[in-house]
Specification:
There is one protein chain. Helix content is 35%, strand content 22%. With 497 residues, it is of the alpha/beta class. The protein has a seven-stranded mixed sheet with strand order 16-17-18-15-14-20-21, sandwiched between helices. A six-stranded mixed sheet has the order 11-10-9-12-13-23, with helices on both faces. Helix 3 runs antiparallel to helix 6. The chain is globular. The termini are far apart.
């Protein structure tokens, strides 16, 4: 490969091509697309732009490698993942810098994402050789039933822009552990991190086991692949709208489907809550990743006795959040991913105010020159929000905190469950029994009890209802990439009549 196949981004060398069958290659049609820094609006790099022909070439590569890869030992796959973990940790500075440059979050949070993303590599390196089957006698005792797990086959991994590394390792690590080959498609806004990550680990894997396809048009990848019976699995993190479209397309060949979709997370604060702890948790749950997380608290449901104090103090905290380029060590909140995202969020805020919500902090588009080129939006607090307002029913995906109030415990649960979504939820109370009772009443796949951050590689991440299907991480994560086969044989412990 000659030097023109690489580009320099902030002093970091990145391959510009697609990665298919163990080689970096230009797109078949020669297309490229630009990656933009949301903090400045400036172009960071141009990458090869995969289209349907490239997607099918990647699937052929994955299909051809699948049988051999499936029969490698779990110990061998575990050692590969462990080395990938070590390399990711060793190159944390480069990965964090790329995350900040293409996504916008500050460097502190970008480093936290690298640690979090690396943890999936380590976790599934440990899970790979411990994916247990089972053996039990039939009820009549004449036979034994043994179950084993087989890799489902070539898998399409579609990742979002908000966590460019961690959402990829959360999918790729269990695929590798299970013995599946993969086609990894990074989000069109943030492919640089995965280009670099692919470059870091490429020599660990046989040709065809990992194929990485940056593209400006995701449908050009997903549509031809889902129409091909050789693809056996799709894992997608993104919007509910797109997730439903992908799920419908997957029915043609009944590909296994994992979907981690939108959220509308309630953050309930009961009257006995430790308010200092609740404010700390609220700030983390809302402003982590600039509010651009599916687990972000979307509605703060506060007991009427704490409403005024919580609202006032949260607004004070939010006003201290400093906007700026994520590379600046003084920055708390970087830019949103695009100006279009900012306009959508600002429209939700102004619409709520027009319907009677009270603006306590933020709620404006910055005009100062140092922020003029980026898609910045300040940390915003709205009180007097009602359940019928769009801002209470829509996933905000930005640093805006709408506050609603309740009087009784059952009212809190009713407000929290009044949504089509069911991903993350949060509860603050001093009463352990009530905290556990709340988890039982909340229709969500995850509940943080007196915690504002709930993600962990050891946990089965995922939602219910319109928030998706399946689980990522934990012992359950590898199961999404396997099929169960049972084998029956005569029970040798039963005496022959």
């Amino acid at each position: 490969m000659n030097s023109t196949d690489y580009t320099e981004v902030h002093g970091i060398t990145i391959p510009t091509g697609l990665y298919i069958n163990g080689e970096h290659t230009p797109a078949h049609a020669g297309n490229t697309f630009a990656i933009t820094n949301p903090a400045t609006g400036h172009t960071l790099a141009h990458l090869a732009d995969a289209k349907s022909t490239d997607a099918l070439a990647a699937l052929t590569s994955a299909h051809n490698a699948q049988e051999t890869w499936a029969h490698t030992t779990t110990r061998h796959r575990a050692e590969i993942l462990r080395e990938a973990y070590t390399r990711t940790q060793a190159h944390a500075e480069e990965l964090a810098t790329l995350i900040t440059l293409e996504m916008g979050k500050n460097l502190t949070e970008a480093h936290a994402e690298v640690r979090y993303g690396a943890e999936y590599l380590r976790w599934f390196s440990e899970e790979a050789p411990r994916h247990y089957g089972n053996t039990l006698p039939t009820p009549e005792g004449t036979h034994l039933i043994t179950t084993i797990h087989k890799p489902v086959g070539p898998s399409l991994l579609l990742t979002p822009w908000n966590f460019p590394l961690a959402m990829a390792t959360r999918k790729l690590a269990p695929a590798i552990a299970a013995g599946c080959t993969s086609i990894l498609k990074p989000a069109e806004h943030t492919p640089l991190t995965l280009q670099y990550f692919t470059h870091l680990i490429a020599d660990l894997l046989p040709a065809g086991v990992l194929n990485t396809l940056p593209t400006s048009t995701p449908a050009d990848i997903s549509e031809p692949l889902l129409a091909d019976a050789r693809l056996r699995k799709i894992s997608f993190t993104g919007s509910t709208r797109v997730g439903k479209q992908l799920a419908a397309a997957a029915t043609k060949h009944l590909q296994r489907t994992s979907l981690e979709l939108g959220g509308n997370a309630p953050f309930i604060i009961f009257e006995d809550a430790n308010l200092d702890a609740a404010l700390t948790g609220a700030t983390a749950a809302k402003l982590r990743n600039i509010g651009q997380a599916c687990t972000a608290a979307n509605r703060f449901i506060v007991h009427e006795s704490l409403l005024e104090e919580f609202s006032t103090r949260l607004a004070e905290l939010f006003r201290t959040q400093r906007l700026g380029n994520g590379l600046n060590p003084n920055t708390d909140l970087g830019p949103l991913i695009t100006p279009t995202a900012r306009e959508r969020i600002h429209t939700l805020v102004t619409d709520a105010i027009s319907q009677g919500a009270q603006l306590l902090a933020g709620g404006y588009i910055p005009t100062n020159p140092e922020l003029a080129e980026g898609a910045y939006y300040p940390a915003t607090v709205l009180s007097n929000v009602t359940p019928d307002m769009d801002i209470a029913r829509t996933e905000i995906f930005g640093p805006v905190a709408p506050i609603l109030s309740f009087a009784t415990e059952n009212q809190a649960y009713a407000l929290a469950n009044d949504t089509e979504y069911g991903l993350a939820s949060y509860v603050y109370t001093a009463d352990t029994a009530r905290a556990l009772r709340a988890a039982g009443h909340l229709h969500y796949g995850m509940a943080g009890l007196n915690m504002g951050v709930i993600s962990n590689a050891a946990a089965p991440f995922g939602g219910i209802k319109s928030s998706g299907l399946g689980r990522e991480g934990g012992a359950e994560g590898i199961e999404e990439y396997t099929e169960t086969q049972y084998i029956t044989l005569p029970n040798p412990h039963v005496a022959t009549p």
